Amino acid sequence: MNRHLLLAAIATLAAGGAFAQGAVTAYGRVNATVERTRNANQTVYRLNDNASRVGFRGIEDLGGGMSASFLIEHGFNVDTGAQSGTAMWGRESWVAIGGSFGRTRLGNMGATNAYYTTADYISLHNHDTGSSADAFYLYPGRATNMIAYTSPEIDGWVIDAQASLSENSQLGRTQVLTGNYDKGPWHVGISYLQSGAGVRGPRPKELGLRVLYEFGALSVGGYFIRNDDSFGTDTRRNALRGVLMYAIGPGELHLNMGYAEKVKGNAIANDDARQVTLGYNHNLSKRTKAYTYYTRVTDDAQLYGGKFSSIAVGVRHNF
After folding, report:
1. CB-based burial of residue 123 (10 Å sphere; 0-12 exposed, 13-18 middle, 19+ buried)?
2. Rounded Cα gap, residues 48 and 43, in angstroms
3. Which residues pair with 210 in a beta bridge?
4. Are 38 and 297 a contacting pair, CB within 8 Å?
5. Cβ distance 50 to 30 under 8 Å?
6. Beta bridge mates, 29
7. What is the torsional sign of CA 127, 199, 104, 57?
8. What is the Cα–Cα distance from 157 to 150, expressed in whole angstroms?
9. What is the C-alpha radius of gyration for the chain, rounded to an integer number of angstroms?
């Protein structure tokens, strides 16, 4: 990571915030675990990062119900201090114009709306990060060089559309359309994604459905995802995930179970795979929690990395 570049960016944004009447906000998350992992019959004790990041966001009132906004977000590994990924602002970086018509963003969206609508939304125990992250979500497509539109809320529904520009034929194009419903105890998401050639296969497609319902202290949810051509031409695979969360005062009990069926339509050696995670979060404040979990992936064909398990204890702090 270019430390001087980061410090210069922070100083510039801080100075700009003074002229923008405090419209620029710094935020972030530091999340680390101490773990005992077992993979391929090898046991390792490690200090592990869980998607730590720092970012800046700002908004300016343009009048007439219009606003301009931006967000840039940098990922780092808290265990070593190293940059996460190859790009300085690789987690997310965009500029937007919004109003009564909704919001249009230009830039790097960080992850596709299909991911946020399904896998990310129901990963309640550790925000789909670290060793207990969803092992079976394929993360198809890309979110760089993208134009994105978010509609105003209409009776609980918000529609998002994303499209990447080709720029480089090796990257291919990605189109995403999602609908998210949040009203009362019901939270529903529908997603469709199509990716271009050169990204995990010829023309990968993904269709997803997510539902989560809150029964007071108990939350129950899950997703169904269908992937076509993600493992080669004329291949298909279904994945399911279910989650339970029960709140007990400042604590939360979590159960997360995932299933990926055998890939159909080609000759690769594979079979059904499963993941189970049992966790407990203790909220020390609105911004800080201590937590522990056990996760296990059963993947005899090693299509998703093989058999793996981890026992972890961690601390997450938002700022």
Report:
1. buried
2. 14
3. 189, 223
4. no
5. no
6. 53, 318
7. positive
8. 11
9. 20
Q: How many structural domains does the chain have?
A: 1
For residues 243 and 220, the answer to whether their CB atoms sit within 8 Å is yes
Distance CA 10, CA 223 (A): 39
CB 294 within 8 A of CB 310: yes
3-state SS track over 216-228: CCEEEEEEEEEEE
d(CA 79, CA 134): 21
Among 57, 108, 56, smallest CA distance to 86 is for 108
Parent domain of 251 = 3-318
Q: Provide the whole-model pTM.
A: 0.88
> What residues form DSSP beta bridges with 55?
27, 73
Q: Is the distance from CB of 146 to CB of 163 less than 8 angstroms?
A: yes
Q: Tokens 């915030």 belong to which residue?
A: 17
Is residue 102 within a helix (H) or strand (E), and if so which, with residue range? strand 102-108
Q: What is the CATH number of the domain that holds 253?
A: 2.40.160.10
Per-residue pLDDT tens, the chain, 319 aa: give them: 454 544 445 444 444 444 445 489 999 999 999 999 999 889 999 999 999 999 999 999 999 999 999 999 999 999 999 999 899 999 999 999 999 999 999 999 999 999 999 999 999 999 999 999 999 999 888 889 999 999 999 999 999 999 999 886 566 789 999 999 999 999 999 999 998 765 555 689 999 999 999 999 999 999 999 999 988 888 999 999 999 999 999 999 999 999 999 999 876 778 899 999 999 999 999 999 999 999 999 998 889 989 999 999 999 999 9
How far is CA 76 from its chain centroid?
16
Nearest CA among 204, 148, 192, 141 for reference residue 171: 141
307 C-beta neighbours (distance < 10 Å), count: 16
